[in-house]
Structures are given as structure tokens and as C-alpha cells.
């Protein structure tokens, strides 16, 4: 078990007042809230900060934590000394069975057991209750939406055991990603959520789909955008070129006199589905480098013979 | 304890055509109907159809309800604040998408 430096996690001094701790927590909670934050590790940080606050906001837990001493380093192998909590009375302080599984082993060892043990009788319920619906995110590649895919996802599920204790169970689920799935859509897995109580039926599992950033394609709803580099003569004279699409290479005819940034729409080549999206190929004219005498003389020839002023619309030459 | 499930469970896609009744939305987000009604009053959710049992909620309601619940629980935001946060988050997503498109 690794030692957690709750003061370090929250960035407060060991002698910070309860008010300071509360203020700091509120600030950090806003900063790392997973629904709001754009930070990469927001969810992990939010949980970590929440756990630290859970301990530091409660004077009793804080005092117990403090007396473990300052000699510990974050991540250091840690075992609580015997009777470390003698004389402290954890009254729960907002820690509920529903929160189990979101806290670290360190927290569970120090503050978890006593409390859940005390509330053990709550576990035996006489009524039937449908299990909770669970929600999670799943990251897939754009190509997976075209071909369909199977993703193995791991979930940590807090569960109430028969005698009222809380344990976390790791579940690995193999999920078929249906073709045509889009960013932000959800997949429902009936009966794969939380277990029902007293013989109640289980809840459902909802997975929100997110696409990983693709090096070539950009997705907007059902439509896909691809920036396609073309040579100046291909844009000017027209050409037949090969174009990569998520479903494989296709032949594309570039019309003559195409300008930089021209969008070519390939109807129905976007994401599949009842209403398939379109693939937009955006032409990016790429200039050949003038790195040889031959190239320079060709550019010079264009300069002399084309009489082209790219800034004509600005009234300057 | 690791549990392997051999057969892949049945999946169902919730797309733009999927709608939820009031009861389904309540069940799925584990909330009371009163809270959903209050969220409708604050414009957080926009169901089609007549009030109450005849309401149909678009698929996006699921996400909006859950974010509202999280903001309430974690940050003490009230419904008016959540409505504002959701609008701003949507705007940020749009701008982010546009920015990504421009900076490629």
C-alpha cells in the first residue's frame, strides 16, 4: 500500500486552517471537475483531491492522519502501525458506502473499514431494488466505426457483499462496437449495470463513445473531413488521384481550376448509418520547393508568362 | 477479483432518433421526476410532446442530466448555474472543434 500525502495533493501547508482547506478544495474541485475540466488527467486528479479533502476536512480524521507523522514520502510503501487509530472515533463524516471503490487502498485501510463495519446491518435489506445504471466512457478509433470492433473494457465496480461490507470488483467486459457509431453517442448494455438488491433486476451499463484523435481525419457529426495535399498543376489542370478514406483508398477526380481550400464532397462516404454522412476532401495546394536550377527556372517562367497577381483583390501588386 | 465474461452482451446504440420517456430518464439517472421537471423549467432539458407522461426526451438529455447532477453534487451548483454551465460547455466544445479544424 502506498502512502498518500494529502497535504501535498491539495497543495496546502500541514498547518493550514480548516477554512483554507475548504477554499482550496473548492478551487481544485472546479479546476479538475471531469465534466468541466479540459485537463488531461482531470478525473484522476479530481478523485485524488476529493479523497484528500475527505480526510482533511474532518478534524478527527485529519488529526489521526497527522499523527502518522511527517516522515513518509508520497508513494512510499506504508502499513499503518497497530492501534494507530486508538482514541479516535470516526463518525463517518460524509463517507458513505456509495463512495467506496473511488478511494485509494490507503484511504480504505485507514478510514474505510471501521465505518463500513459499523454500518454492516444496513446491508441486509428486506426490499427488492433494481440495480443502479452505470456510466462509463469508451475510446475508439474512427476506423472502428466503419468496420465495427470489439473492445475489452475494464470497470471497477463497488459492491455490497452479503454481510454489508463494500468491496470493489474488477469486471472485464467484451463490448461489440456497432458500425456507424458516432462521437458522443451512447451504447446501452442492458443488465450490465449494478446488481439488484434482494433479487431485483440488474441496472444497465451506458458507454459514451469518444473517438481518439485521428492523424488524417476530422469528424463533425456524421461527416468526415480530410485535408488532401495536391500539386499546383493537379489543382490547375485537374487530375485523378488516390485518396485514403477510413473505408480504404478511393479514386478521386480533381476538377481543373480548383483553388486552394476547395471542398469536394463525396456523398455518403462519411460515417455509415441510417443517414450516412459525407466525406469532405479539402484541397491543400502544396508548393514544390525551388531547390534546383530546373525548379527555379520553371518558377521564373511562370513569373514571366502568367502575369499573376495574387494580391489583386487588395489593390496592390 | 476479475470476472471474465465470455459472451459479448447485447449492445444498443442510443442515437439522435432515440428518445426517453420521463420514467426511463428518471430510472437511468436515478433521480425523481420532480428534479427532471425542475430541469425542464430551467431549460436544461427540452422534451417534446405534452407535459408529464407524454414527454419525450432527446438522447442528449441523458448527458445533460448527468452533468447537472455531478455539478450539483460536487460543486454545489444550483439549476440555474448548471443551465449556464451546460450552455457554456457546449459553446466551448463548438469553439474547440473549430479551433482544431483551423490549426491542422
Task: Describe the protein's architecture and organization.
The complex is a heterodimer of chains A (317) and B (104). By secondary structure, chain A is α+β, with helices and mostly antiparallel strands. Chain A has 3 domains: 113 residues, DnaJ domain (Helix Hairpins); 78 residues, HSP40/DNAj peptide-binding domain (Sandwich), CATH 2.60.260; 96 residues, HSP40/DNAj peptide-binding domain, CATH 2.60.260.20. In chain A, 26% of the residues lie in helices and 24% in strands. Chain A contains 8 helices and 11 strands. A 4-stranded mixed β-sheet of chain A has the order 6-7-11-10. In chain A, a hairpin with a 5-residue loop joins strand 2 and strand 3. The termini of chain A are far apart. About 8% of the residues of chain A have low confidence. Chain B has 104 residues and is mainly α. Chain B has one domain: Multidrug-efflux Transporter Regulator, Chain: A, Domain 2 (Orthogonal Bundle), CATH 1.10.1660.10. Helix content of chain B is 55%, strand content 11%. Chain B is built from 4 helices and 4 strands. A two-stranded antiparallel sheet of chain B has the order 3-4. The longest helix of chain B is centred in the last third of the chain and has 24 residues. The radius of gyration of chain B is 17 Å and the shape is globular. The N terminus of chain B is likely disordered.
CATH homologous superfamily assignment of the largest domain in chain A = DnaJ domain
Beta-strand content bin of chain A: 15-25%
Strand content of chain B is: 5-15%
CATH classification, class level of the largest domain in chain A: Mainly Alpha
Question: What kind of sheet is the major sheet of chain A?
Answer: 4 strands, mixed
Amino acid at each position: 500500500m502506498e502512502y498518500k500525502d494529502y497535504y501535498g495533493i491539495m497543495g496546502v501547508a500541514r498547518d493550514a486552517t480548516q477554512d483554507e482547506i475548504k477554499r482550496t478544495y473548492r478551487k481544485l474541485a472546479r479546476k479538475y471537475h471531469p465534466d468541466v475540466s479540459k485537463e488531461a488527467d482531470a478525473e484522476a486528479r479530481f478523485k485524488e483531491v476529493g479523497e484528500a479533502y475527505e480526510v482533511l476536512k474532518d478534524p478527527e480524521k485529519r488529526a489521526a492522519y497527522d499523527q502518522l507523522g511527517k516522515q513518509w514520502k508520497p508513494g512510499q510503501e506504508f502499513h499503518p502501525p497497530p492501534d494507530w487509530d486508538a482514541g479516535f472515533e470516526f463518525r463517518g463524516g460524509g463517507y458513505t458506502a456509495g463512495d467506496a471503490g473511488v478511494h485509494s487502498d490507503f484511504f480504505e485501510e485507514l478510514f474505510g473499514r471501521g465505518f463500513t463495519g459499523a454500518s454492516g446491518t444496513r446491508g441486509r435489506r428486506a426490499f427488492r431494488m433494481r440495480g443502479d445504471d452505470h456510466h462509463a466512457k469508451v475510446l475508439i478509433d474512427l476506423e472502428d466505426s466503419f468496420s465495427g470492433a470489439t473492445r475489452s473494457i475494464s470497470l471497477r465496480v463497488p459492491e455490497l457483499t452479503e454481510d454489508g461490507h463494500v468491496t470493489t470488483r474488477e469486471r472485464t467486459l467484451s463490448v461489440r462496437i456497432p458500425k456507424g457509431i458516432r462521437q458522443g453517442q451512447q451504447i446501452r448494455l442492458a443488465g450490465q449495470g449494478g446488481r439488484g438488491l434482494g433479487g431485483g433486476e440488474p441496472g444497465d451499463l451506458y458507454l459514451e463513445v469518444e473517438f481518439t484523435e485521428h492523424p488524417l481525419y476530422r469528424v463533425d457529426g456524421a461527416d468526415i473531413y480530410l485535408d488532401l495535399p495536391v500539386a499546383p498543376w493537379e489543382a490547375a489542370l485537374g487530375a485523378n488521384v488516390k485518396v485514403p478514406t477510413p473505408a480504404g483508398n478511393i479514386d478521386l477526380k480533381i476538377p481543373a481550376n480548383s483553388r486552394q481550400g476547395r471542398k469536394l464532397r463525396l456523398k455518403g462516404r462519411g460515417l455509415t448509418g441510417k443517414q450516412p454522412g459525407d466525406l469532405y476532401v479539402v484541397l491543400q495546394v502544396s508548393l514544390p520547393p525551388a531547390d534546383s536550377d530546373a525548379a527555379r527556372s520553371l518558377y521564373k517562367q511562370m513569373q514571366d508568362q502568367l502575369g499573376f497577381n495574387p494580391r489583386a483583390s487588395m489593390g496592390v501588386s | 477479483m476479475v470476472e471474465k465474461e465470455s459472451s459479448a452482451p447485447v449492445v444498443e446504440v442510443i442515437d439522435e432518433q432515440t428518445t426517453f420517456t420521463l420514467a426511463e430518464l428518471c430510472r437511468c439517472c436515478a433521480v425523481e421526476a420532480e428534479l427532471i421537471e425542475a430541469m425542464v423549467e430551467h431549460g436544461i432539458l427540452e422534451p417534446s410532446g405534452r407535459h408529464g407522461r407524454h414527454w419525450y426526451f432527446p438522447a442528449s438529455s441523458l448527458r445533460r442530466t448527468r452533468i447537472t447532477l455531478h455539478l450539483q453534487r460536487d460543486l454545489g451548483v444550483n439549476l440555474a448555474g448548471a443551465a449556464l454551465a451546460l450552455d457554456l460547455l457546449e459553446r466551448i466544445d463548438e469553439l474547440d472543434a473549430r479551433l482544431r479544424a483551423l490549426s491542422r
